[in-house]
Specification:
Number of helices: 18
GO biological process, one term: response to endoplasmic reticulum stress
Family: Belongs to the protein disulfide isomerase family.
Bound molecules: 2-acetamido-2-deoxy-beta-D-glucopyranose
Strand content: 15-25%
Number of strands: 20
Organism: Anisodus acutangulus
Shape: elongated
Radius of gyration: 30 Å
Helix content: 40-55%
Structural class: alpha/beta
GO molecular function: protein disulfide isomerase activity
InterPro entries: Thioredoxin-like_sf (IPR036249), Thioredoxin_domain (IPR013766)
């Protein structure tokens, strides 16, 4: 179906493809395996132990990074099996030297390795150059770049966390038996606050019982937020200042204007996770390549996207936060920098607004697959009106359309989204409609056949030939997923167009047109 949901999935697919594409091309030259015997585990550990005993000055950033890189074990033909089988937990990064995304992730991975080591984690962090060691990479089932896999006693599971160093650490600890940080002193709380800006804080009288079990389960199942527990009300107050006097509490802390959110539900794992899902994003999320996958998968609310220049957005951000606060239970607000083609273009294309230089405000309802456009100028007032309209169902869905063309003396009418009702559905004529797209290769043949048919039937006043470019025009009644498509709309029933086979010859098509016109004549005669 030619719906926004379809386009959205295509969009997500394209996004994933940009992750995977390099690996596809690489498979072509993964011909020989020239991996030689490099340093084994023991050597690496030896390196770790040396640490920077030779450095007396403060290490530079480059030194810090290279030291961190060394904490990450480099897998090769000889050490991989041993590393995977010999450790309870191994987090493997599969990369290719030329892959940009791998290069971006590598320092964060190394930074996370350093942090985890300092925290005494038993997790082994390892990386493998999948181009140099394709056989090993394939036994680990590394298919795209970068790939992150956690091996637990030799069995792998996909990585489901975020991609900053902090998020890597949080996820790794959750999945390796340390899902919660316990804080028992004010000093620890201060130290923790210096390092974390987003976390779940909890207060329990004792760390046991059904409520506590549900809380622990939620901490393990969540993929991105650090959970904290304390049994001291003063410490809880330090972490969550407006806490009411209580001996059972859970709240979410974030680094943004809406910093503190108290949990008011019962202690059940599902409800806690739902609460986090509803509240974990900032009032306005800035879309980046790092969080895109997370944002796209968070489809439980309406999404309103503001696509604009950062300067225009800055002017809007404060009033927008007030709007966002008001609608936060129903709408997720996302800012997209219009200059970032990778992020902004797919959205603008869905609305036919690729060339827009002004702010564009759009919305998606993932349950209904409908999309919406704020058609007036973007101001705090218009935005607020748009949002309440969305929630009350008074904003009409948006269907893209080219401008209305001049069809004077055309043997084949050009139909656009805006004229589909008038020219097709409400027209008293029989219509043969050709539906094509810009990118379809076989559409040209069908277009030529249409020209011939139009010439052949010229002068027949109850038959009209028309065409529509479905890449630039949409209509709720036009649900086609294959191009070209030929639809015959009979004058007496526009609700059930008849699909003509596009692989037919002109002659066969002409015969089909005649047959359908005659069938209609017969019906009219029968009625008389
Ligand atoms: C891994 O295997 C060891 C030894 O059999 C076992 O003690 C440990 O519980 C296992 N770890 C996990 C997370 O299943
Ligand atoms: C989104 O679509 C669903 C399914 O059609 C509908 O039930 C819901 O009311 C819509 N939400 C809004 C806010 O329009
Ligand atoms: C359009 O058709 C009409 C009648 O067939 C004719 O008089 C007129 O000149 C045509 N106009 C153009 C621009 O071809």
């Amino acid at each position: 179906m030619y719906t926004s949901k379809f386009i959205f999935f295509s969009l997500i697919f394209l996004l994933l493809l940009t992750f995977l594409a390099p690996s596809i091309s690489s498979e072509l030259d993964l011909t020989d395996e020239n991996g030689d015997d490099v340093d084994g585990l023991e050597e690496l550990i030896a390196l770790d132990e040396q640490e920077d005993s030779q450095h007396h000055e403060k290490p530079s950033e480059a030194e810090f990074v290279s030291k961190a890189q060394r904490i990450v074990l480099e897998l090769n033909n000889d050490n991989t099996k041993r590393a995977i089988d010999g450790n309870e937990y191994v987090l493997v990064l599969g990369y290719a030297p030329w892959c940009v995304r791998s290069a971006e992730l590598m320092p964060k991975f190394a930074e996370a390795a350093t942090a985890l080591k300092e925290l005494g984690s038993s997790l082994l962090m390892a990386k493998i150059d999948a181009e140099r060691y394709p056989k090993v990479a394939s036994t680990l089932e590394i298919k795209g770049f970068p790939t992150l896999l956690l091996f637990v006693n030799g069995t792998s599971q996909p990585y489901t966390g975020g991609f900053s160093a902090e998020e890597l650490v949080i996820w790794a600890r959750k999945k390796t038996g340390v899902p919660i940080i316990r804080i028992s002193s004010d000093a620890e709380a201060s130290h923790f606050l210096k390092k974390h800006s987003m976390f779940v804080v909890s207060l329990f009288e004792k760390f046991a019982g059904p409520d506590y079990d549900e809380f622990t389960k939620a901490a393990k199942m969540d993929n991105e937020i650090q959970f904290v527990e304390t049994s001291n009300a003063e410490i809880a107050k330090h972490l969550f200042p407006n806490i009411k006097p209580t001996n059972l509490f859970l709240g979410l802390v974030k680094s943004e204007p809406e910093k503190y959110t108290e949990y008011e539900g019962t202690f059940s794992t599902d409800e806690i996770l739902q609460f986090l899902d509803d509240n974990k994003f900032p009032l306005v999320t800035v879309l980046t390549e790092l969080n895109a996958a997370r944002v796209y998968s968070s489809t439980n609310k309406l999404q309103v996207l503001i696509i604009s220049e950062p300067d225009d957005f800055k002017k809007l951000v404060e009033p927008l936060q007030d709007v966002a606060r008001k609608f936060k239970s129903g709408i997720m607000f996302i800012f997209v920098d219009i200059r970032e083609d990778n992020l902004a273009k797919p959205f603008l294309t869905m609305f036919g607004l690729e060339e827009s230089e002004d702010s564009v405000v759009i919305s998606f309802n993932y349950s209904s697959s409908l999309k919406y456009l704020l058609e007036s100028d973007t101001t705090p007032t218009s935005l607020e009106g748009f949002c309440s309209g969305l929630l009350s169902g008074t904003v009409s869905p948006y269907y893209k359309s080219q401008p209305i063309p001049d069809n004077k003396n055309m043997s084949i009418l050009t139909v656009v989204g805006k004229t589909f009702d008038e020219l097709i559905l409400n027209s008293p004529e029989n219509i043969l409609l050709e539906i094509h797209t810009q990118w379809c290769i076989s559409c040209e043949t069908t277009s030529k056949q249409m020209e011939k048919l139009a010439k052949h039937f010229k002068g027949l006043d109850n038959l009209i030939f028309a065409r529509i470019d479905a890449s630039l025009n949409e209509h709720p009644k036009l649900q086609v997923d294959d191009y070209p498509t030929l639809l015959f709309y009979s004058a007496d029933d526009k609700t059930k167009p008849i699909q003509f086979p596009t692989k037919s010859s002109v002659k066969e098509l002409a015969a089909l047109v005649n047959k359908n016109l005659k069938a209609q004549d017969r019906e009219i005669r029968d009625e008389l």
